[in-house]
Design a protein that fits this description.
With about 375 residues, this protein is α/β, with parallel strands linked by helices. It has two domains: about 250 residues, Alpha/Beta hydrolase fold, catalytic domain (Rossmann fold, 3-Layer(aba) Sandwich), CATH 3.40.50; about 100 residues, Rna Polymerase Sigma Factor, Chain: A, CATH 1.10.1740.110. Helices cover about 30% and strands about 15% of the residues. The protein has nine helices and twelve strands. The longest helix is centred in the middle third of the chain and has 16 residues. It is globular and about 60 Å long. Homodimer. GO terms for molecular function: homoserine O-acetyltransferase activity.
């Protein structure tokens, strides 16, 4: 096992084994991650930032493939709510993903070929256990906070439920304690689009042509759920593409069509189709109450973790009522929890966009106000 490294483009190969919820022992476990700032002598300033479904470890640095700034530079950076001048920030690529952490695209040491669909089924809790292994490797016993939005918020909840003694505070943004039937339905449309692509080839495409068309459609379908009707109407309405002469057909006549197609095609440059299958399935399996005897409050009984939950009024993917259900469970368990619903026209994606109100909430809760 390599010595702990800190900085950007880091990778740890941990001997494991990591026991997955499905009973499989995974070994070795590769984890790609980035760190920002310096761990203090007492090890008390570490904040784990957890990414969403299609995110990665490049939370505050330029993405190596797209060249775009990190996905949460609005939250992390000098003078921001999470400041590397004060906080030691860690962001890992989740288990099952495709930016360096063990997943279907990585090589199975036993065969010398990519895992593909032979990679074991994973859960959100498996992702959290892998992160805990990395923190052990880095010598971090306890986190000042775990922070995440969407799937990242689910990881934050799972962290507090699985390792309550290791988490002082949890910030859970635009998330839920379990996937609804509607969530599962949208994901299944995306998975079927991928598997219907003839290039998918049962997941064995790494030496050939990837199923880009199917993955693009999956991304388009999912992206609709990240937006709000008001936001789409304001940005696109029913406006047509500018062209000299319009004839009826199946080209992108409407601006919103062109936007979705661009989102889908751009996504295929940086993401793996099999990883999308695995991670969406992990999201669908997530049910924190079921993991604790069917009672959500049981997940948090005796926890000393402080919680801050944030929802957005136009988020119909994980609506406010689901955050309120988590807050009620936290209160029933005797946990310290605060909650706020913020107003935004941008739907679920609001947590990734410029939101001074969200910044103030996170900064105040973490005690990082100036």
């Amino acid at each position: 096992m390599s010595a702990p490294t800190f900085g950007q483009n880091c990778r740890a190969v941990l001997p494991g084994p990591l026991r997955l919820d499905g009973g499989v022992l995974l070994s070795p476990v590769e984890i790609a991650y980035e760190t920002y700032g310096t761990l203090d002598a007492e090890g008390t300033n570490a904040i784990l930032v957890c990414h969403a479904l299609t995110g990665d470890q490049y939370v505050a640095s330029n993405h190596p493939i797209t060249g775009k700034p990190g996905w949460w530079t609005r939250m992390i950076g000098p003078g921001k709510p999470i400041d590397p001048a004060r906080d030691f920030v860690i962001c890992t690529n989740v288990l099952g993903s495709c930016m360096g952490t063990s997943g279907p695209a990585t090589v199975n040491a036993a065969t010398g070929k990519p895992w593909g669909m032979s990679f074991p089924v994973i859960t959100i809790r498996d992702m959290v256990r892998a992160q805990a292994m990395l923190l052990d490797h880095l010598g971090i016993g306890r986190l000042k906070a775990v922070v995440g939005g969407s799937m990242g918020g689910m990881q934050a909840l799972s962290w507090a439920a699985t390792f309550p003694d290791r988490v002082a505070a949890a910030v859970v943004i635009a998330a839920t304690a379990r996937h609804s039937a509607q969530n599962i339905a949208f994901h299944e449309v995306g998975r079927q689009a991928i598997m219907a692509d003839p290039n998918w080839n049962g997941g064995d495409y790494y030496e050939g042509t990837p199923p880009a068309a199917g993955l693009a459609v999956a991304r388009m379908a999912a992206h609709i759920t990240y937006l709000s009707e008001a936001g789409l109407t304001e940005k696109f309405g029913r406006r047509l593409q500018a062209r000299e002469a319009k004839s009826f057909g199946f080209d992108a006549d409407f601006q919103v069509e062109s936007y979705l197609r661009h989102q889908g095609l751009a996504f295929t440059d940086r993401f793996d189709a099999n990883a999308y299958l695995y991670i969406t399935r992990a999201l669908d399996y997530f049910d924190l109450a079921e993991e604790h005897g069917g009672v959500l409050a049981n997940a948090f009984r005796g926890a000393a973790t402080r919680f801050c939950l944030v929802s957005f009024d136009t988020d119909w993917l994980y609506p406010t009522r689901e955050s309120r259900a988590v807050v009620q469970a936290l209160h029933a368990a005797g946990a310290a929890a605060s909650f706020v619903e913020l107003s935004s026209p941008f739907g679920h994606d609001a947590f990734l966009l410029d939101s001074p109100e969200l910044n103030r909430v996170v900064e105040g809760f973490l005690g990082n106000g100036r």
